[in-house]
Amino acid sequence: MINFFRKKRKILADDNKALKYTRYAIGEIVLVVIGILIALSINNWNENRKERIQENTILNQLKADFISNLQQLDQKISFRKEFMNSSKQLFKYIDQPSLRNKDSIDYHIAKTMPYATFDPIINDLAGSGELSLIKNTALKQALTRWSSEINDVMEDEVIWKNYRNNQYFPFLIKHYQLRTVRNKAYKANILGKYSLEIGKNNEAYAKDDIGETLFKEDFNALLNHPDFEDHLSRCYSVNSWANVQSQILRNRIVLILELLDNELKN
Prior knowledge:
Helices cover 77% and strands 0% of the residues. The protein has helices at 2-14, 20-95, 102-111, 125-128, 137-175, 178-187, 202-207, 219-224, 226-265.
């Protein structure tokens, strides 16, 4: 293309020998400028194409991560509901002694002992500089807020974990025998289902058998102790609030996934 313009310019310049040199020089400058502009245009197109490929790679990875986060969060919400339901069942046994059944009591005590930990995949897009590759402003803002919003849920989880370890467990150890409770938990796979890798450790937990205690167990004394009711109240309220925070976080994940889908369709 440039050679064609150069030949045309030379023919025109030859028609007037006095202006030949001037036209030739100006023509060369014009051709060089045209060449530079074409090169820059091609380079910019290539750079934009590379950035779009990078952005799509990031968006697809984020989609996979947030689908995984949503699945895990839903599991944790379900687990906490189980803790809460067992607390309510134990409240019923406290309020209605005629309904008390040792096997059921041990089972529901075991269900109040675990804690659910949300361990999401977090991409440090801002720190890596990759956030700038994402063009959608709403998506970038949602991703920026994501890390701080996780903390609200994790703080509630830590509150229950610390309370369980420092207050609830010592009380149970002092006023009841936990060997039988733990054994029921193993046999019912109550603990295995709360492992980080759901399903992977289920069989191992189900095979555990530590037997039942030979010491006297007085479940009536435990249920009639006023502090036991307080501990159950704590179990219920902390996990209930964690689920409220989790639902807010869940809405955020759903929004991010919708924004990601819209971007990937474009």
